[in-house]
């Protein structure tokens, strides 16, 4: 495997990691770990296979390792308003916060499926492979996650502007 | 033959436009009979678009340098003792040029360039407010005089929503939004098919020079934007570039004529 195709995937990996994790530095760390692991295993890689799904599954496994690691408390929801690409203006920040606040109230397993559909346009079967779960589980997480998000974003739910989580 | 029952998985797939064409059509006719389900699936589609808009900018960011350095075999000595002075020198240069650029930007571009921030802010406002069914605007078109007076007062300049009836779009109403340094007005229009456009007007352009028409695509949302006389304008919609461009020209001409 050459370096260039791997480096070409960085923007996509960063976007997904940022959306999944929320925090910019933590997301970039996850991307870096993914690249390093992929690079260290490049000799076992067959060039005729598509690179991206392989990278996403590496990232997913690393993320699971992180979440399982003892001693690292999961960040509170409030700290995980994602950092958008450009410095947010006040209006950006408010509007992003609505969607983001709802997004980070979802269980991560639901958020992952929603993001792979919305951002990566990945097929349901490819998502099942990437996350190493049955397709039926992909579909139920997608359904539950979307419904959850829809209720959170509904104006009458009264939680979209809530910033403080008890 | 009676059509097969429709499973929830297929509804999800319909929202993502992933069903085979024939099945997509069958589900569509089912949805015509079930408006609640249809609205639910449309909300999922709006979620997809909003998430794309939210995270699109990450794709355009400069990639941090440390991510581009894959571990490679290099003699340790060379790395330690030969490279570092150059790296430090480069770092000093970077800091200097950054400071210089900042100073220049401060001198010549008073606010972080309005034109640069406009399309993204406008697209986000579009993505957030157009899916709203119950509260798309704060003040409806039935109170157009009040709407114009209110937003003019808040933006500190006479402002009247352009008329786009000839293009098939009627005013739904407007709302006030916070911008980077002050208020922003958002007008919403809708055509007979329920397609919505938004016109984002920011009064923060007093330090920015006028610009020509520019076009940007933010996820699914197309945006024509320009800065004129201290105001930034952005027209956003999901229609094709040519149609949106025609309407943007119309908006510009009506604003010019005042």
From TrEMBL, chain A:
Keyword field: Sigma factor, Transcription, Transcription regulation
One Pfam family named in its UniProt record: PhyR_sigma2
Residue ranges occupied by any PhyR sigma2 domain in the UniProt entry: 7-60
Database matches in Gene3D superfamilies: 1.10.1740.10, Winged helix-like DNA-binding domain superfamily/Winged helix DNA-binding domain (1.10.10.10)
Residue ranges constituting the RNA polymerase sigma factor 70 region 4 type domain according to the UniProt record: 98-149
Family: Belongs to the sigma-70 factor family. ECF subfamily.
Protein's recorded name: RNA polymerase sigma-70 factor (ECF subfamily)
Source species: Azospira oryzae
TrEMBL record, chain B:
Protein name (Swiss-Prot/TrEMBL): Anti-sigma factor RsiW
Species whose genome carries this gene: Azospira oryzae
Lineage: Bacteria, Pseudomonadati, Pseudomonadota, Betaproteobacteria, Rhodocyclales
């Amino acid at each position: 495997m050459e370096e260039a195709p791997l480096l070409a995937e960085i923007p996509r990996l960063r976007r997904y990691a940022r959306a999944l994790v929320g925090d910019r530095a933590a997301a970039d760390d996850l991307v870096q770990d993914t690249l390093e692991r992929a690079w260290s295993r490049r000799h076992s890689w067959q060039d005729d296979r598509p690179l991206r799904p392989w990278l996403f599954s590496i990232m997913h496994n690393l993320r699971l390792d992180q979440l399982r690691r003892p001693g690292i408390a999961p960040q509170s929801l409030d700290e995980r308003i994602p950092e958008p690409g450009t410095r947010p203006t006040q209006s950006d920040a408010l509007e992003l916060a609505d969607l983001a606040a709802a997004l980070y109230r979802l269980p991560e397993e639901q958020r992952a499926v929603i993001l792979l559909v919305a951002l990566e346009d990945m097929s349901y079967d490819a998502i099942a492979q990437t996350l190493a779960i049955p397709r039926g589980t992909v579909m139920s997480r997608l359904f539950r996650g979307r419904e959850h998000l829809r209720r959170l974003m509904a104006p009458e739910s009264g939680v979209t502007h809530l910033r403080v989580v008890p | 033959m009676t059509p097969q029952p429709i499973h929830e998985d297929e509804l999800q797939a319909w929202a993502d436009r992933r069903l085979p064409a024939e099945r997509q059509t069958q589900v569509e006719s089912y949805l015509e009979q079930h408006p609640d389900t249809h609205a639910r699936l449309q909300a999922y589609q709006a979620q997809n678009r909003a998430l794309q808009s939210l995270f699109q900018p990450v794709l355009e960011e400069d990639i941090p340098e440390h991510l581009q350095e894959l571990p490679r075999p290099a003699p340790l000595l060379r790395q330690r003792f030969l490279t570092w002075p150059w790296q430090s020198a480069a770092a000093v240069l970077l800091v200097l040029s950054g400071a210089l650029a900042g100073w220049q930007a401060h001198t010549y571009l008073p606010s972080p360039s309005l034109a640069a921030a406009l399309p993204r802010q406008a697209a986000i406002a579009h993505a957030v407010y157009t899916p709203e069914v119950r509260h798309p605007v704060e003040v409806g078109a039935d109170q157009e005089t009040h709407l114009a007076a209110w937003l003019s007062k808040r933006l500190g300049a006479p402002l009247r929503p352009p008329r786009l009836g000839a293009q098939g779009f009627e005013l739904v109403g407007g709302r006030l939004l916070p911008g980077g340094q002050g208020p922003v007005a958002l007008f919403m229009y809708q055509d007979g098919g329920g397609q919505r456009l938004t016109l984002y007007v920011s009064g923060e352009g007093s330090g920015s020079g006028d610009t020509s028409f520019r076009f940007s695509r933010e996820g699914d949302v197309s945006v024509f934007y320009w800065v004129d006389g201290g105001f930034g304008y952005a027209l956003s919609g999901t229609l094709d570039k040519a149609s949106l461009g025609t309407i943007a020209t119309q908006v510009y001409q009506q604003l010019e004529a005042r």
